[in-house]
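Table S2 (continued). Query chain:
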Amino acid sequence: MKIARLALLSVALVLISNSAYAQGKPAPKDALLYFVWPQKGTTIKGAFWCRFGLRNMGVTHAGDNFKNSGHHHLLIDVNEPLNPKEPIPSDKAHLHFGAGQTEARIELPPGQHTLQLVLGDAEHYPFDPPLVSEKITIRIR
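Corresponding output:
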C-alpha cells in the first residue's frame, strides 16, 4: 500500500513540475512580433497571404523546446485577453502554426476584422510577459 501511494505521489509531482515548466517562459526583452503584411488599415479583396515577422527570437515547431524560440498563433477578431497560465486555444479565432510557418493564406468574410499575433512556446503557452504584435484592423471587400 505504501509503495502504491509513493508511486502515485511521484507521478503527481512529475505532472505538476512539467505543467509549471510549460508556463511562463521568458522571452528576450528586445523580442518583437509584428505583421509583415497586411498592414493596419489595409483593404483586401478576397483571400490573402498573411506574413508574420519576428525579431530577436527564432521560429520552431510546436513541441520543440529551444531557448528563445516559439511558434506563431494568429488571433482573428479576439477581444478577450489570453490567460498566460493556460495554453492558447485552438479554434477558428485562434489559428496555430505549429509547423513553424511564417505565413498563411487566410480567408475571411467581407467586413472589418482584427488580427493579432501571439508567440507560443513548445506547449502553446504564451511567453511571460506575453509576446504579442500590435492588434491591426483590416477590411475585406
